[in-house]
Design goal:
Elements lengths: L1 E3 L4 H10 L9 E3 L10 E3 L2 E4 L2 H6 L3 E4 L3 H14 L2 E4 L6 H13 L1 E4 L5 H17 L4 E8 L9 H14 L3 H4 E2 L14 E7 L5 E9 L2 E9 L3 H14 L5 E3 L1 H4 L4
């Protein structure tokens, strides 16, 4: 297994979680050329380098929670080597998504905005609630993350909002509202709103609200440690190497699809 971005928050969490697992071995760790941790030992006999080709060549699966540009570069290199991947980078542009799609044509890829078991159960509950309640109940998603998070709304919030849209049987892009400012008028029936809050060191909190007449339903998930995401990513890494080429998510890994 190769870990990309070992000096980042999630990279460090993956390395820490991997130490407690016997079925996975860290074979390489690749960081950006200007990373402070280059040359540091990240596992027994493994030091962090900036040599992406060598890192991918030494493994059968890589885990990537880096940046959109790094994720695109890694996917392009992995496609040439037909390496399996577990990707959790968010804030991707169309070109980044295209690189992942090309990799999935020749290798198995688990791509998810959130690797938490709890969050993936929330997705199923939210879709079921939206299907049962219908668009007559106003649906909103509120997410909170630490001050350093760059993308908004978060990838997880978008997953939840899209699950609501799926429950309603509509195209999310036709009903979404990611910001409200000024006189926006009454809330349209069927609109799905997403609001982002940033501050402090919050790991991640997400709540799906369904507002009905005289009652309200809330489905929430709160993460207090990045270890839950790392544990999920490692579970995905152990699973994906036995799969045929294609794009998968955590519901596939957990058998909940």
């Amino acid at each position: 297994m190769c870990v990309l971005g070992p000096s980042g928050r999630m990279g460090r969490a993956v390395l820490e979680a991997a130490r407690a697992r016997d079925e996975l071995r860290i074979a390489a760790a690749v960081d950006r050329p200007d990373a402070a941790g280059l040359g540091a030992q990240v596992a027994e006999g493994v030091v962090a380098t900036s040599d992406l080709a060598a890192g991918l060549g030494a493994c059968d699966v890589y885990i990537d929670f880096s940046s959109p540009a790094s994720t695109r570069e890694a996917a392009q290199a992995a496609a040439r080597l037909r390496r399996a991947a577990v990707i959790g980078t968010t804030g991707l542009a169309a070109a980044d998504e295209a690189a992942i799609a090309e990799l999935a044509r020749v290798a198995p890829v688990v791509f998810a905005a959130n690797f938490s078991l709890g969050v993936n159960l929330v997705l199923g509950l939210v879709r079921q609630a939206a299907r049962a309640l219908g668009p007559e109940w106003d649906a909103e998603v509120v997410e909170t993350h630490h001050r350093a998070k760059r993308d908004a709304p978060s990838g997880t919030a978008l997953m939840i909002a899209r699950a609501i849209a799926a429950g309603h049987g509509v195209d999310y892009d036709q009903v979404k509202r990611h910001a409200r400012d000024g006189d926006v008028g009454p809330r349209p029936r069927g609109e799905i709103g997403v609001a982002a809050v940033r501050g402090g060191d919050v790991v991640g909190e997400h709540t799906a609200y369904f507002f009905g007449a005289a009652e309200r339903l809330e489905i929430s998930h709160r993460a207090t440690s990045r270890a839950i995401f790392a544990t999920g990513a490692l579970r995905a890494a152990a699973w994906v190497t036995a799969q045929p080429p294609g794009r998968y998510d955590m519901l596939d890994v957990l058998g909940l699809q």
